[in-house]
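User: Hi! Is it possible to get a structure for several chains at once, not just one? Here's what I have:
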Amino acid sequence: MGISHWVRSMSNPPNLMSTVKSEWIKFRTVRASILGVVVTFVLTIGLGALITTAVRGHYHEMDPLRKITFDPVSTSLGGTLFAQFAVGVIGTLFITSEYSSGSIRTSLAAVPQRTRLVIAKAIVLIFSILVVSEVAVFITFQLGQSIFSGVVPTASLSSGPVLEAVLLAGVYLTLLSVLGFSLGLILRQSAACISVFTSLLLILPIVMFLLPQSWQTSYSKFEPSALGQAMMSPTPAVNSFGAGTASIILLAYVVVTLGIGTMLLHHRDA
Amino acid sequence: MIKIDHLTKRYGDTVAIDDLNFEVRPGVVTGFLGPNGSGKSTTMRIILGLDHATKGRATVNGQDYADLKAPLREVGALLDAKAVHPGRTARNHLRALAASNQIAKSRVDEVLDFAGITTVADKRVGGFSLGMSQRLGIAGALLGDPGILLFDEPVNGLDPEGIRWIREFFRSLANEGRTVFVSSHLMSEMAVSADQIIVIGRGRFITQGSVDALTKTAQGSVLVRSSDPTKLRDALVARRAEVDESSDGNFTVNGLTSDEVGEIAFAAEITLYELTPQRASLEEVFMDLTADSVEYGHKPLGPVHE
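Assistant: Yes, the chains can be modeled jointly so their relative placement is included. Here is the combined structure:
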C-alpha cells in the first residue's frame, strides 16, 4: 500500500488561480456546459439568420413609420433573445448541479474559502460565455447584414455605436449567465432557478403591460430584457436607457444578486 | 489530531449534537459509533467546515478547517460516495480536486491505481456502483496525502473483498502515523477495524475507550443450574444479586462474578450443575449503551383495522 511517498511539503499554497483552474476543469468536463454552448451558438446564429431572412422578405410591405425606426443592428441580433435562456441555464447548472449531486460538499471541503469559490466560478463562467457570445454575435451580425444587403438598410462595424452595440450584445448574454448562476446560489435548485430566470425575462414584461401606462413608461425600461434591447441598439429607443446606462444597471442587478448568493453560501450549512 | 470541544449543533428545536467533547489521535484507527441519526455525519460535516456549529468548536491540527490553506493536503474525507457530479468521469473529478489544492496531476493516476479503479477512470461516475463510488471517494481522500482521514460509513456498499481491503487500508494508514476517524452504525464492524471507539447516541457522548476495555465494562452475567434453585435464589438475592429465573429452573445472575456465585452455593450446601460466565458481546454492549438513544427505534406493528 505504498501511498506514503508523497511529498507533503509541497511549497506553493493554493490560491484563487488554482480554484479557477479547478473550476475550469469542472466546467468543461460536463455535457451540460458543452451542450449549452452549442445551443447558444445555434440559437444566436440560426435564429438570427431566420429573423433577418424573414425581415428581408417583408421589408417592402413594412409601413413607412416602422421603416424609419428600423434598426438593422438589434434586428440581426434577435437570436440573442433565445440564446439568453441557454446561457442562463448554463450559469444556473454550473452551481445547482453541485447541489443536486451533493458535490458542493466536495467542492467546499477542497476550497473552504467560500467567496473564493464563488469568484473562481464566476471568472470561469464569464470568460467562457463572453468568448462564445462575442464570437456568436459577431457572426450573426455579419451574416444578418449580408442577408439584408441590397433590400434592407444595413449597418457596419466601422461605426462606433454599431460596434459597441454588437460587443454589448455579447456582454448582455454573459451578464445573464452570471445572473442565472447567482440565482442558482440563492435557490440551489435547477428547476426553481430556471423558472425564476424565465419569469424575469418573459413574465415580467407581461405583468408590466398590465400596469397603468405611466408606470410602464417609467419602469419597463428597468426590465432585464429591456436593458438588453437598449444595450444592443446603436441609437436609444423611446422610453429606454442609453446603452451605457443600461449596461451599468444590468451589471448592478448581477452584482447584487451574486452578492446575496455569496452571503447565503457563507451562512448556510452546505 | 482532531479535537471536538463542547460542540453543539441545533436545527431549530432539534438538537443534533449536544455538547460533544473528544479527541481523535494519530496512529490508531478511531471508530465513531452510534445508531443512525445519532449525529455522526453532522459531527464530520462540522469538522470539515461544511456545517456551522451552534456552539463549541471542531479543530484539525489545532485550526478551524476553514482556515486551512491547502485542506486536501491535511485532511482527506469521504462523507458521501455518491456526492460526485454524475456526468463527470472519475479522472476529471479527481483532476479538478487536485488542481484546487495545487496537487500534481500525476498524483491522480497514483490514487486511481491505488483504489483499483484505473480501468473505469474515464467512465462517467453516474454509472458507478456504490462500491466503485466508495473507491473513487477513497482515491479523492488520499489525493493530498493527508495526515488526517475521515470516513463516514465507508464499508456500505462494499463487497467482502472490498471490506477486507478497506480494513487493512485503515490499519496501514494508522500505522503510518495518520489520524484515522471512521464512523459506523455497526459495532461488529468497528470491533474488527478500530482500535479506539467513541460511542455517541442522540448527539451525546456515551463512552470512549479501546475495544477490549469497552467489552470489559460490560456487565457480565452468570448462568447457573443447580440442585435447589429456590434455596440458591434466596441466597443470591440476600447478597443483592439480580436473578432472572427461567422456566426450567436455570437462572441468570447479574451483579456477581461466577466465583462469588460458586462460593455462595458452596456455603449454602447446594450442588451446582452448571456455572457459566456470560461475556456480553461488543454488539450487546453497544445495544445496551445506546438503548435509550435510538432515534428511529421500531415499535410493534398492530393488526390492520377493518
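Chain A has twelve helices and no strands. Confidence is low (pLDDT under 50) at residues 1-9 of chain A.

User: Great, thank you!
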